[in-house]
Amino acid sequence: MAFVLSHAYSGILLWWKNRKAKKNIDSYSKENTSSSARYAAFTGSFIFIFLVTHWATFWYKFNFDMQGMSYYEVVLGDEVGFANPFFSVFYIVAIALLGYHLKHGFSSAGQTLGIVGTEYEKLYNNLSIIFWFWIPLGFISIPLWFGFLVRLI
Ligand code: HEM
Question: What's the CA-to-centroid distance between 70 and ligand 1, angstroms?
Fold first, then answer.
């Protein structure tokens, strides 16, 4: 929780400083940054909203309000689970944005750690795809399957 909050704090601070600094050179800065970097503040904020919602629903229910229900009844139910299309769509969008946020995170970490421009850059980029694309896709498969696809078969 402390890391999440300090990451959010430094991210917002950086976004604010950038905003002030590039007021007059907007078109210039756009050419030099990737879209995942430019949207990091937006995707990060959405992930924060997702996490708060996730805790207020699944986590709260699992820890304080199960009322004898099973795991599957909660996760697949229509109260906070994937039988409710709102939650399914919300999870799919939020996890896709989480993947996009991580894409920027990995490229930024690659710069910081000095991997970019070395012989390891290609390996690093290929490995990072597992974390920003394949693992989030695995998470997305749950609301996609239980929220929509399972109803079609
Ligand atoms: C389809 C996707 C997901 C499902 C079905 C799911 C399900 C759950 C459930 C059932 C709990 C409560 C567990 C318990 O308290 O025993 C939980 C807690 C939690 N989830 Fe998720 N989750 C999903 C995606 C995510 C994602 C993408 C994140 C991170 C961005 C995340 C972060 C957390 C955290 C931090 C907790 C609280 C810690 C804990 O109780 O261990 N979840 N999740």
Answer: 16
What are the tens digits of pLDDT across the range 36-46? 888 899 999 99
User: In ligand 1, which atom is closest to the CA atom of 51?
Assistant: 30
Tell me which residue range forms the domain holding 105.
Answer: 36-152
- C-alpha 72 – ligand 1 centre gap (Å): 14
Tokens of 123: 């390996």
Judge if 98 and 27 occupy the same domain: no
Taking the CA of residue 74 as reference, the ligand 1 atom at the shortest distance is 10
Residues 2-19 pLDDT 10s: 999 999 999 999 999 988
What is the per-residue pLDDT for 30?
A: 59
- C-alpha 71/C-alpha 87 separation (Å) is 16
Whether residue 44 sits in one domain with residue 12 = no
Q: Which atom of ligand 1 is nearest to the CA of 95?
A: 27
Nearest CA to ligand 1 atom 3: 139
Co-location of 75 and 43 in the same domain: yes
- The label of the residue with tokens 């078969």 reads 153
Q: How far apart are CA 116 and CA 128, in angstroms?
A: 13
The pLDDT > 70 percentage for the chain reads 94
